[in-house]
Design brief:
Rossmann fold; 335 residues; 7 strands; 13% strand; alpha/beta; globular; DNA polymerase, domain 1; binds S-adenosylmethionine
Length: 335
């Protein structure tokens, strides 16, 4: 089933609900304690935030770049007076966003990457290739839209984006078709773009809609999602106190590779000359800022994957901040 399959709707509600992915696993990893402070960098529908606040008498700072997520989240204030703080912004700026509010350290950070069900399912947001809507895709509702991108970038730039961020083998062909189609009529609607892509790329045996990869690529580009992730990981390294835990849920290989590579570098694994070199001989290993808490990524149970199709590609990586100073200060060049 496509990750764009419409999400469930609660009885009596028009709006589809977001089911938190790997929720129990994230809460177990962060192990909330009374008096501690946590950061939920991707508030969304508040699933992680609420679970943390319910698990212990802790404080949660929650960030989301989507103003609509925060508007919805305001109702949670009444339930958690003094313990919940909502911030509009990007998790890539977490150090400054919290620093300006007098917070310089936290005991755990959760990042649940990508978009929420509310964003995908709301055709007006323009993320969906199944429902017609404006070709928008901006989580922040400001800046350059997906329509601006497909109508103005060169064929080569579009091919590079679709290849790199969509891992689409037919990226050149798709880019050429987009440029030809926009000469006739500039893109403004999601289904116009989806139809142009589907005419170029055949449906694969796995049944995945051919528009999936091009839409993923544009969404990542429009929102600079991979740049945000890199800044967010470095921010977490600064903000976490020793013993604090970082939990990142990713949904495709590009994101997971960035998290895995960062944690490998920061745990010293990528810096030691070989696995036979004793850690005591390498400065970098001694200065590792993270200790991975599981060797392999944690994936959803069969039961979760069966009830929530959007969970199927999820991967959780968890690591604990050591007491070492920032690795950049020791090893240099690894910023
Ligand atoms: C998958 S949803 C999170 C769902 C949440 N864990 C829950 O249980 O309800 C991702 C959310 O993160 C937000 N988001 C994505 N990238 C972000 C970024 N760089 N900074 C802040 N928020 C971001 C999106 O707007 C969306 O609301």
């Amino acid at each position: 089933m496509s990750p764009q399959t419409p999400g469930p709707t609660a009885p009596g509600m028009d709006e589809p609900q977001h089911i938190p992915v790997l929720l129990a696993e994230v809460v177990e990893a962060l192990a909330p304690k009374s008096g501690a402070t946590y950061l939920d960098g991707t508030f969304g529908a508040g699933g992680y935030t609420m679970a943390l606040l319910d698990a212990a008498a802790c404080v949660v700072w929650a960030i989301d770049r989507d103003p609509e997520a925060l508007t919805r989240g305001e109702t949670l204030f009444a339930r958690y007076p003094d313990r919940l703080h909502l911030i509009h912004g990007r998790f890539g700026d977490m150090v400054d966003l919290l620093g300006h509010r007098g917070v310089s350290g936290v005991d755990g950070i959760a990042l649940d990457l990508g978009v929420s069900s509310m964003q995908i399912d709301d055709r007006a947001r323009g993320f969906s290739f199944l429902r017609d809507g404006p070709l928008d895709m901006r989580m922040e509702k400001s800046g350059r839209s997906a329509a601006d991108v497909v109508n103005t970038l060169s064929e080569k730039e579009l091919a590079d984006i679709i290849f790199l961020y969509g891992e689409e083998r037919h990226a050149r062909r798709v880019a050429r078709a987009i440029v030809e189609a926009r000469r006739e009529r500039p893109f403004s609607r999601t289904l116009h773009l989806a139809d142009v892509v589907r005419a170029e790329v055949r449906r694969a045996h796995d049944g995945i809609d051919p528009a999936t990869r091009t839409f993923q690529a544009l969404r990542i580009y429009v929102n600079d999602e991979l740049g945000e992730l890199e800044r967010g990981l470095r921010g977490a390294e600064r903000l976490l106190r020793p013993g604090g835990v970082l939990a990142v849920v990713s949904f495709h290989s590009l994101e997971d590779r960035i998290v895995k590579t960062f944690l490998r570098a920061r745990s010293g694994a990528a810096l030691r000359p070989s696995r036979h070199t004793p850690a005591s001989l390498g400065n970098a290993a001694a200065a590792a800022t993270f200790k991975p808490l599981s060797r392999r990524p944690i994936t959803p149970s069969d039961a979760e994957a069966a009830t929530n199709p959007r969970a199927r590609s999820a991967r959780l990586r968890v690591a604990e901040r050591t007491a070492a100073p920032l690795l950049t200060a020791v090893a240099g060049g690894l910023a």
